[in-house]
Amino acid sequence: MDKQLELLQGTLDMLILKAVSLGPLHGYGVLLRIQQVSKDRLEILQGSLYPALYRLELQGWIASEWGESENKRKAKYYRLTTAGKRRLQTETENWNSMADVIAGILGTKPEEV
Amino acid sequence: MTLWSSLRSWLSATLRRSRMESEMDAELRFHMETFAEDLVRGGVSREEAARRARMEFGGIERVKEEGREARGVNFLDQMAQDFHCGQRVLRKSPSFAIVAVLTLALGIGATTAIFSVVDAVLLRPLAMEEPSRIMFLQEHWQDIFPGLSVGNFVDLRSQGTSFSELCASNNASFNLETGGLPERVDGEIATANYFATFGIAPLAGRVFTPEEDKPGQAAVVVISERLWRTQLHADLSIVGRPIRINGLPTTVVGIMPKNFDPLLGNSELWIPERFTQAQLADHDNHYLNVMGRLKAGVREAQAQSELDVLAKRLQQEYPIDNQDRAFRLQPITAALLGDQRLGLRLMLAAVGFLLLIACANIANLQLARSRVRQKEIAMRAALGASPNRIVRQLLAENVVLGLAGGVVGVFLAYWAVAWIIAHGPAEMPRLDQSRVDGSTLAFACVTALLSSFLFGLAPALRSASTRLNEIFKSSSGISGGSRDSLRSLLVVGEVALALILMAGAGLLIRSALLVSHVDPGFDTSNVMVGRVGLPDPGYHDPSVARHTFERMIVAAAALPGVESVAVVSRAPLAGGGSSNGLLAEGKAFDASNLVNSELQIVSPGYLSTARVPLKAGRDFTAQDTREGTLVTVVNETLARTMWPGANPIGKRFACCEAGPKGRMDPVWHEVVGVVADVRAWGLDRQVQPEFYIPIAQMPPSAWDWIGRTMDLVVRTKGGQIPVRELQSSVASIAPAVPIYRLSTMKQKISGTLERSHFDTFLLAIFAATALLLSSVGIYGVLSYMVAQRTRDIGIRMALGASQRQIVLDVLGFGVRLAAIGLAIGLTVALVATRVLSSMLFGIRPTDVITFTAVSVLLLGVALVASYLPARRATRVDPVVALRYD
Dihedral through CA B504, CA B507, CA B508, CA B511, nearest 10? Predict the structure, then answer.
């Protein structure tokens, strides 16, 4: 396994929004999906997931309801709201442009200055 | 309503919170268990899986806390948190908390107790319909406000238009027999519309009809609920049955509801007035209480101006009886409770001061603590608490203190109210109704909250505004100047308030001491007084009444241990009495020449029995009868008023009755003796002109004025007072006639001083507490100052300052604070004590001796309070102090 990357500050929210945009998930499911998609390369403190989920819910970007899990237990499922969809879109755009700018800066060669 | 809605929102928030908590629990548990199951499926042992699940999840409590925060905690939750925190902080410094709570409890308890008395006596509406529309009428003549004459009353009732009902009553007491021993009860003789005027219907039965209020009708009575309950076993079948009043069977027609006592005179029964034709025409005897209910839309001023017009008309119609006579109108509440206002408001102000001093003390303690707690608060601020949040948190701490103080205070008030009811002056109406109830509790609660803001806000604001870097930089050393000046200011304020209270209490104490040295004008030791009222039916004939009293004197004088016995129409300090206008011989028959004087009808032995010193002339003898010359003995004040500078012996004045030739025919009384002034209305009251006439010479109609009631005055040889024997010897001569209000002269004197002693006592307690609290304040500030300046003091000592200099410095600071407070307090007190004028005897409200005494006392206490910290300052070891950092 490659060395795990520490999550950049402020990116967890975005990852959660993305994860639930693919279909309703419970908290543990969010963790699994991020790990699965990132191929375990991101280090996520399991506990920190929940405060983030509550924060997003309070802001109205995700909504929750109780449902039944794969192992036939009661679990709380989160799904993306319309507002959340818009939010995910702007965050993604922001992130991409930011990444471009940073990559551009870091890729600068001496003769280009 | 707002209380309910905020309670509801708090309740729903609490419910929501607990649901949220359990959901969060379930969610987190699901996460860990599912994770563990996955690990088990991957081949890990069950225990190992559970352990790893817990570990990788991280601290569950922290996650929960962050979760709660992320969810957005509302204002109420934060407040609950603040309170919780406040409680914890206080529990960590128990000595501070206990001192603060007790100080506050003292302030709140005293304030609440006095408030519940004020509420019961003054604030609660009188038990009648629309008390604000009920007026109390009196005549106004010269400087006195007598009752109305029957003639004037009926004229006002027939000619006036301002009142929907105008009723009259006069106070009387009755011999009541309900089975056991005869008893004397107070009541009123009232017109039929008396009950309708107050708008109160009977509890059972009916009130009397206008028909029953006419002469010659069968005897009827309306009784109070209390009499019905205590004497008649609360038996409803008593309505329609007779009880014996003044020896006559009288039918009970109705029972009035509880607390019906519109004139607050402890009336137990009411019988109809039944004015005779002669009474209806009488404009000369002024004794009726008159009450009227204003018609809708009529204002007090309008009614007063109508009365002024009617008074003019009556003056012209009956020039002899009504010359210069006007009417005074007052709302009944003012008329009945006006006397209580000053004293009670004074007490309320005093406890308010006490509460302020208590608050200042706690604020001072908090300021001192906030200095010590700076680091704790700075840490909180550094961790991200906003100044707003810090202020809220500190305030919450103070509110916790305030409420705790309030709870203890209410218990204190509970006890204090019981004490006040038991020891308070009997004459204060409705005092027995004082209790700690809803309005009192609300008052205590508001007081507690207000005071916690009062003493908490300044320290809290100050703490929150401190800049972080300053605190971390300076670890100890020289204290900030502005902080100390606020604390000093508080102490100065406390001292000033304490001085005002002390000045007030000092004046009352000095006045009480002066009163206790007043010569009552007769020998009060070994004298017993009891009142005997002969009922009209059996003792109507004046000679029968007189012989009955004379036989009583003989019987009582024969009792063992009795030196002498006499009767007097109103013994000194027994209350009541009747006044007469006297006309000196040689003066024109005109109302302006009349000298108003109190009449005492006495048996010949009275002046010697009471030992009223004879200043000139002679005492009465058994030979002074109506067959001989009518004689009188006057007091020195009357002699001085009537014949200034002349020898009064042999002079004559007309009074009390008319000669055979009609109303303008004077009946002369010759002065045969002059006696010393007797303080008949209380040691602290002005002496009135007074004259005595012998019982054998009294005008026959005077028996009606005095209600056939006389005080039996018994001088004993100093041994046991024969109460039982006295009662039975009275009963053996007049069966079914009780002797009542039986007590020693000394008891009667202390009875009249009860009210002023009570006020003095309470104010003295408040002042002493204020002094104590403010000296604690001075002590606190100085101790703190010494502790803060340990290093300064150390340096100064190292540089050669002597211990004496250090002591003088600290003392000087304390005394300076006290002196400034003293100066401010004196200035205010000199003006404020004016409100005491009417309660003072023999001194002015700016009495120099009192003011000097309280100032010296205060400075002395301040000096002691400063000395303790000063001595501690001298114990500072320069070496230790300099190494302090």
Answer: -170
**Contact B20/A at CB under 8 A:** no
Q: Is residue B659 predicted with pLDDT exceeding 90?
A: no
The candidate with the shortest Cα–Cα distance to B205, out of B155, B168, B255, is B255
Is A69 near chain B, with CB under 8 Å?
A: yes
Compute the half-sphere exposure of residue B107: CA atoms within 13 Å on the CB side of its CA.
32
Count the helix, strand and coil residues of chain B and give each as a percent rounded to the nearest 5: 55, 15, 30
What distance, in Å, lies between the first and last C-alpha atoms of chain A? 39
Alpha-carbon distance of B165 to B185, in angstroms, equals 28
What integer is the mean pLDDT of B719-735? 84
Q: Residue B223 is which amino acid?
A: I
Residue A57: list chain B partners with CB under 8 A.
71
Q: Alpha-carbon distance B849 to B853, whole Å?
A: 6
For B871-884, what is the mean pLDDT? 75
Cβ contact, residue pair B63, A58, below 8 Å:
no
Structural domains of chain A, ranges and CATH numbers in brackets: 5-112 (1.10.10.10)
Evaluate whether B117 touches B414 at the Cβ level (below 8 Å).
no
Number of CB atoms found within 10 A of residue B787's CB:
17
- CA contacts within 13 A on the Cβ side of B316: 5
Angle at A39 between CA A37 and CA A45, to 5 degrees: 90
Domain boundaries, chain B: 2-73, 142-324, 341-517+752-882, 535-736
Reduced to 3 states (helix: H, G, I; strand: E, B; else coil), residue B741 is: strand
- What residues form DSSP beta bridges with B674? B616, B634
Q: What is the pLDDT of residues B700-713, one digit of tens each?
A: 888 888 888 999 99
Could you give the strand order of the β-sheet that contains A25-26, starting from the edge strand earlier in sequence?
Answer: A25-26, A74-80, A62-68
Note the ipTM here.
Answer: 0.89
Prediction pTM value = 0.74
The H or E element that residue B166 is part of is strand B163-177
B204, β-bridge pairs: B255
